[in-house]
Structures are given as C-alpha cells and as structure tokens.
Design a protein that fits this description.
Shape: globular
Number of helices: 15
CATH class of the largest domain: Alpha Beta
Radius of gyration: 24 Å
CATH superfamily of the largest domain: Alanine racemase
Helix content: 25-40%
Number of domains: 2
Oligomer: single chain
Distance between the termini: 58 Å
Number of strands: 22
Bound molecules: pyridoxal-5'-phosphate
C-alpha cells in the first residue's frame, strides 16, 4: 500500500488545522481553493489575505482585556503596528480600520504619516510612536509633525544626542519615551543591544535632559527584546529588570504612566507550533502588576507594537515546481519558478523556516526533496522544515504540475529583498494580489517586467 502525502501530513501534524483544509486532494486557505487561485493568477504569486490582520489585532486585544479583568489590572492597553514589518498602504489601511497606533522607524515613515493625515485617515490626535535611530532628517520630520499639531507624537530616545538636536526645532511640547538597551540572550554574539539607553544611565539621562524641561514630558519607558517574547528565563529576567527601572523612574516622575512592550510576539513557522498567546499576555501583565504592587505604584498603561504577529499570517506565496533534477542517488532537486533569495530572503539570510505545503497532488506518494531557486546562486535553496532536517512533498511527476505554498511570510520579506527594483539574476518580483474579507480579489501588482528593471539599470 502506498503512503500518500496526505497520510504523511496527517501522521506528523495535527491536521487539518486553521486556516488550512484539504478537499479532493487540494489545499484550501480560509476556504479558498489555492489550485483555482493558481489557475486564475498563475505563479509565482504573492498573496495578501487582509482579514487575518484584523483577526490578530482582535486576538491580542482580547488577551489583554481578559488578563486585565482577571487580574483586576486597571489601565489602558494600546495596540500599535510597526510599519517596518510591511509598509504597504493596504496593510496600514487595515490596521487603521482597527484604530491602532503607528510606530515609525525612519524619515520616510513620517512621510507615510503625512500622507495618511492628508488623506484624512488619521488626525492630529493619532498616537505616533517614533522609534529607531534618529538621523537629523528623521528628527526634523518628527519636529515638523509635532509643530503641525500632532499632540500624541512620542519620540522614543534611542541615543543621547536626540533631545539636544530636536529641542530648538520644537514649537510645542513633545512626549518622550526612553528605550532601555536590553541585554541580549546569552547565545548572542554581543552582550547589550545597540538600541536604546543603557539601563544604568537612564535615570541620569532623565534628570539631565527631561526633568523640569519646558519642551519634553516623559510618557513611556520602552522595552523590546531582540529575541522576541518567549516564555524563557531571559525574557522574564529582562522584564523584571525593566520593571525595576520603571519603578525608579516613577519615583523621579510620579506622572509616568506608560510601558511599551515593543514587538516580538511569535508567529507559527511550523504546523507543530502552538503558542498560547493568552497565557503569555496573562503572565506579562501579572509580572508588571506584582512589581508595581511591591512599591505601591499605579499600574502603567501598556503599549505593544507587534509587527510580525500583525501581518505575517496574512501573507503567503505560491510557486510551481518547474522540473526535478536528480543529481545523485539521494538528492532530488525540485526547482521552483522563482528564487528563495529574492522572495523569501529570510530563508537565506537567517535560515528562517516557514509553513510549507503542497497545494495539489495530496493523493500522490511522498518523497524527500530539496527545493532550489532559479538564480545561479548555490545558496538559493530550501532544504529543511523547522522540526526536521528534511522536506517532504508529493512525488514529482512531470505530467502533473506540482504547486507549493509558503505561509506566514507576510512580514519583512519585501522590505528586506526590495519590492520591484533590481533582483539577483534579474528574477522578477512576483505578481501580487490582495484578498479582502468578502474574498474579493484585486491585483495589486503585476509581475515585474524587463523594462522596469532595465530602466533602473540605465538601459
Ligand atoms: C522597536 C521595535 N518595535 C517593534 C518591532 C517589531 O518586532 P516584531 O516584528 O518581531 O513584532 C521591532 C523589530 O525590530 C522593533 O525594533
């Protein structure tokens, strides 16, 4: 009896599981038949499925609401989105529909804020948190926004020079947050993050630059762990250190009432991942609460600026296997009709894994393969799942085109690889479609054409 791909998936994973289902040996995503999608739009095909953005926002808000209620934590929770995870206008529109605040990282991000204001999508009361390293142009753009009347624009101090530079540019008072430079996970190559102010320098910095200032008021302490929000010793240690710092600052400025927990909420990279977001939120709120109770300090309003968590699940990409090359007895290369380096750069640069599934041929026997891209680069490949050192797909048969999908890839990939522009071996950017809550489909971008690339190259 042959063991089929569907048998293999069902034996190894809890499957079907949302948003996936299989019917008639074809994969469905949120009820959308991906084979039919491929028939209509071809591949490589980048898909943005917008309703999942709003689902995630609601999930996190519910988690905080429940934790606040259970723990009797009386304060506000603010959900923010860091634009750097995906700057597309349709993503920003989706998060604004949910009334999220915006976190910016650079000068051009402030241009996005200006555009949203001109289009009346936000007004001067919208909360804008400005993070990241501040160049002179970024600081000037922040000052201009504050001078335009944006009341809730908040500069998060990343480096010591920022307040000195911006002060003379300001007509109005500016809200300030200070980012703690956290200590990295012991496995990291360096000890303390380059981002933010060293924890033992924060009080001095506050006293020298903010305390008693007519231009600045301290609103937030900002805390972001590079390794992400994880239920491990490192995270809880850093959160406790952050709370000690918050309590010391609160003593100096009793009106301080905000704590920004940054981003870093996890996203499934395998069908085996199963995060309890509600548990993590509950534990975080409890840790903050216990800390505040120990010194009788009011509970801070909490802010998060989840990037990957907000947008990753909304993105997936479909490829077709063009051919199979058997290079020796053991290694079969399925060659996809695009490139991993250019469409999923994190697979190549940080060895990131994604949920990867066949779209069709689920009734076929399965086989172990390697996946190769069509650039000439030897590193343009994908060869393992997160949980195993291998990839399994339905057996390749030239007469039955094999389609595959990579899921939860909606964050950072275009910002890192570039969108359009020049690509390795001039492999074009894929066609990109958007699916809305009514499953209406819009083509956002056609596949990049040769003229587009050659023009940039000066031809
Ligand atoms: C300050 C800050 N906030 C939020 C984020 C978003 O992180 P993630 O996409 O992991 O949620 C980052 C990521 O680098 C960050 O530096």
């Amino acid at each position: 009896m042959k063991t089929t791909y569907i048998d293999w998936i069902c034996q190894n994973f809890d499957f079907p599981q949302p948003p996936f289902s299989v019917n008639n040996n074809q994969l469905y995503f949120k009820g959308i038949n991906l084979v039919e999608l491929h028939q209509e739009y071809g591949s490589p095909l980048r898909v943005s499925y917008l309703p999942l953005i709003q689902e995630r926002i609601k999930q996190a808000r519910n988690g905080f609401k429940q934790a606040f209620e259970t723990l009797h934590y009386v304060a506000d929770y603010h959900y923010g989105y860091c634009t750097k995870s995906s700057h597309f206008s349709f993503v920003i529109d989706a998060i604004l529909e949910e009334n999220c605040f915006i976190e910016t990282s650079s000068t051009f991000d402030i241009e996005i804020v200006n555009k949203l204001y001109d289009a009346k999508k936000i007004d001067v009361n919208h909360l804008i948190i400005c993070n990241g390293y501040k160049t002179d142009s970024y600081l000037t753009a922040i000052a201009n926004l504050a001078n335009k009347g944006f009341k809730n624009i908040t500069l998060i101090v990343d480096d010591y020079h920022e307040l000195e530079f911006i002060e003379p540019l300001l007509k109005n008072r500016l809200k300030i947050g200070i980012r703690i430079a956290t200590d990295e996970d012991p496995k990291f190559e360096f000890y303390t993050s380059r981002l933010g102010v060293r924890i033992d320098k924060i009080e001095r910095f506050y006293l020298d630059n903010i305390h008693g200032s007519k231009k600045f008021s301290l609103e937030l302490l900002h805390f972001f762990i590079n390794a992400g929000i994880k239920d491990n010793l490192h995270y809880w240690n850093e959160l406790n250190k952050c709370m000690e710092c918050y309590l010391r600052l609160h003593q100096l400025q009793p009106s301080l009432k905000g704590l920004n927990l940054g981003g870093g909420f996890p996203v499934k990279n395998s069908l085996l991942d199963n995060f309890s977001y509600e548990y993590m939120i509950h534990e975080i709120v409890k840790t903050i609460q216990e800390s505040c109770d120990s010194k009788n300090v009011p509970y801070p309003n909490l802010y998060t600026e989840f990037g990957s968590y907000t947008v990753a699940e909304s993105g997936f990409i479909l490829y077709q296997v063009l051919a199979q090359k058997k290079q020796n007895d053991k290694e079969r290369w399925n060659i996809i009709n695009s490139s991993f380096i250019t469409t999923l750069p994190d697979t190549w640069s940080i060895n990131k894994r994604y949920i990867m599934l066949a779209i069709n041929n689920w009734e076929e026997e399965y086989e172990r393969v390697l996946l190769g891209g069509i650039t000439c680069d030897g590193d343009d490949y994908y060869n393992s799942e997160q949980h195993t050192n291998a990839i399994y797909l339905p057996k390749y048969d030239h007469s039955k085109p094999l389609l595959i999908g990579f899921f939860n890839m909606g964050a950072y990939q275009e910002s890192i690889s570039g969108y359009g522009g020049i690509k390795h071996c001039l492999i074009p950017s894929p066609k990109h479609i958007i699916i809305d809550k009514n499953h209406n489909i819009k083509v956002f971008a056609e596949e990049q054409n040769a003229n587009h690339m050659l023009k940039i190259l000066g031809y």
